[in-house]
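Fold this complex.
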Amino acid sequence: MSVVELRAAVALLGRFPALSGVDLTIHAGETVLLRGPNGAGKTTLLHLCAGLLRPESGGVRVLGHDLTGAADRRSVRRRVALLGHATGLYDDLTVGENLRFWARAAGLSAAEADRRTDEARSRLEVPDRLVDQPVHTLSAGQRRRTSLAALVVRRPELWLLDEPHAGLDQTGRDLVDALIGDAVAAGGTVVVSSHELDRVAALSPRTVTLAGGAVVDGPSGNGGIR
Amino acid sequence: MTHVGYLIAGWGITMGTLAFYAVRLVRRGRELSGRVPDAHRRWLEDQGSDDA
Amino acid sequence: MSVLRTVLGDIRLVAARDLRIEVRSRVVLDQVLPFAVLVLVLFGFALDADHRTLRTFAPGLFWVTVLLSALLAIGRSASLDATDGTGTSLRMSGLSPVARYLGRTVAVLVQLLVLEVVLVGGIVVLYGVSVDDWLLLVVAGVVAGVAVAAAGTLYGALASGLGARETLLPILVLPVLAPVLIGATRAFDDALGVAAVDGWAWTGLLAVAALVLTVVGASAHGALVED
Amino acid sequence: MAEEPTITASTRDTTGSRGSRLLGVATLVGLAVLGVLAFVLTDPDVRIHPSTGDEFGQFDAVRMLYVHVPLAAMTYLAYGLCAVASLGVLIRRTPWWDVTAHAAAEVGTVFCGLVLVTGSIWGRPVWNTWWEWGDVRLMTTLVLFLMFAGYLALRRTTGDPRTVSRRAAVVALIAVLDLPLVNRSVEWWENRTLHQQSTLGELKIEDLTLFTLMLGFLVLGMVLAWLLLHRFRVGWLERAALDHSVAAAIAERRGETPDEELRRAVGDSPAAREGFDENDRDGDPEAGRP
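Structure:
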C-alpha cells in the first residue's frame, strides 16, 4: 500500500512554485531520506504531504485521501506528525502544560493524555525537573525533545521530520534515530529531510533527491528515484 | 433655479468621479492587455480583428 | 450528545490555554489595563476635567475606551497562534475550528470583563458617575462584551498572517463594532441615569448582535484558519 | 463616463469589446437624456401649505435625487453581487468568482461613496445640515462604506493570494449583513431618520418625476454594468498575467539547479555538508557554497 502518492504535483508558496512537478511514491513502512540543496523544496514537500498546502495541480494522495479537498486535508492532518523548524510549543506554558494540551487537542481523554505524556517524556528523556518549567527557559535541545514528545503522544501513522537532528547534542541525535526506529517498528512510515547524511544512512533509508522543486536522479546514482 | 451651486457640485462630483474611474479602468486594461496573450481574453473572440 | 460534550471539552481546553498564558505573561493585566485607564485620564484632560461634561459623556467614553483596549487584547491573543509554529501545530492537531474559535472567544471575553470592571471603577472615581441600575449595567456590559469578543476573535484570525495586520485589524473590526458601540452606550446611558432611553431595549439589540456575530464567527472560522 | 477611449480604440489591446462599446454609447446617450429631463423638463418641488398658503418643499434641490437615489440602488446591487460571488469563492474556489467579487466590491464602493457625498450635498439645503448624526440610514450606509473600505484594504495586503481571496470573501459576507439594515432602517426606525419612507409604491410623486427617476435607475444601472464589465476584465487580466508568470516560473524552476551544485549539495564530496544552512527554508536557491 502506498502512503504517499504524488503525480506531477505542483505547490505554490504565494506565487512561487516551490514544487514544480513532483513524482514520488512512498510505501507503508518505508524510511525515506529527502536530500537536495537549499531551496530545493524539501520543506514544502513535507508540508504538502502533511496536508497543510493545497496542491495547485497534479495528483496528491496521502493515506488514501486526495488532498485537493479541504475535508480530506483535515483528516490527513490528524494522522500525520510534522516536526518543523519551529517548536510548535507555547513559550509561556510549562513543558507539562504543553504536552498535556497537545495530547488533549488530539482528542485523548484526560487520563489517557497523562499516561501517554509520561510515556513520551521518559522515551525522550525529558527530565522531571523540566516539567514545571516554562518552555522559554529551556535550551534549544530541550525544546526539540519536548516538541518530539508532543508528536509521540499522538501515535501518528506518517512521520514527516524536517531536519530532526538540528540543534541536538549527541544523546539527542541518538534519541531521534531510536525514535525513527520505533516508528518503523510500529508499522509507521517516516520521511526525513536531513543534512546529516551519514547519520541517517545508518537507518538504511531510501534516498530521494530534490532539486528545483522536483525529484531528480541523484548525481551519484545511488538510490535517486524518478 | 434654486440651489444651483449644490446641484452643480453634486452632479459634477458624481459624473467626474465616474468618468475618472472609467478612464483609469480603461488605462489599466490597456496596460495589462499588452502583457497577456489573446487567448486569455475571451471577450476578443466575438470581435475579430476587423477594427484595426 | 457525546459530540457536544467533546466540543464543550475542547472549548474549555482552548479557553484554559489562553487564560493560563495570560496569567503567566500578564500582557493584558500589565499593559492593556493601564492603557485603558490612561485613555480615561486623557479624555478627562481633553474635556477639561469638568465633572458635569464627563458624567454626561461617561457611557460613550467608557465604550470607546473598551474598544480601543480590546483591539490590543485581540491582537495579543491572535499573536499566540502566530509564533513558534503553534498555528501549524493547531492545524495538525485535529482540534475543530469551531472549538478553537469559541474557546478563544471565551478567553477574550473573560479578559474584557475584567477590563470593564476596572473601567467602571474608573468612571465612578474619575468622572463622578453613579450607577442607577446595576442589573442593567451588568447585563449590558456582559452582552456587549460577548459581541466585542466574538467579532474581535474572528477578525483577529482574519488579519493574522497577512502583511500589515496590526493596522488591518482596526479598520476591519471597528466598523463592525460601531453598532455595538451605539447600543452599549445607550444602554449605559440608561444604567448610569444620564439620558432617558430604554436601556433594556438596546440591550436586546446588543444580544441579537452578539448572537449573530458569534454564529457567523463560529461558522466562518474554519474557512480562515484551516484550509 | 469616459467612453471616448474605448470607442476610438484601434488596437486589440483593450478591455473593450463590441458589446461593451455599444453599452458605453448607449450609457452616454442615456446620461445626456437623464440630464435634460432632470434639469430642464421636470419641475422643481414646490408645494403650497394648505392653511397658510406658504410655498415649501425642496425646490430645485430635488434634482439631486435623480442621481442620488439610483446610485443608492446600484450600490445595493453591486454589494449584493459581491456577496453572491464571495459565496462562490468559498464554495467553488474558481478565479471567476473571485474576480467578480473584487470587481463588484470596488465599483460598489465608488457608488457608495458617491451616495454619501450626493446625500450630504443635498442634505445641506434641505435638512439644513451636511451630516445628521441621528439618522439611522446615514449611519448604516457609512458603516457599509467603511466595511468595504476595509475589504479593499485587505485585498491590497501582501499574502498568499488564495488566502487573501478567502478571507476577503468572509469580510464581504459579514459586511452585506448591513445591507438589509440600510434598506429597512427607514421603516424600522421611523422616528430616527430624516429619510422619507419609500414612496414609489404609493405613486405620490408625479408622472414625469417618476419617469425621470426610473430612467435614472436604468441609466445608472448601465453605468454600473459598464464599469463592472471593465473592472472584471482588468481583474481577469491581472490574474492571467500572474498565471502566465507562474507557468514560466515553474519551467524556469525545473531547470534551475546545475548538476555541479546538486553534486555539492547532496554530499558527493566530503566538504559538502558545511555548505548547508541549519535553517533550511525554501528560499534562496543560491544559498549553497559559491
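Chain C has a mean pLDDT of 93.
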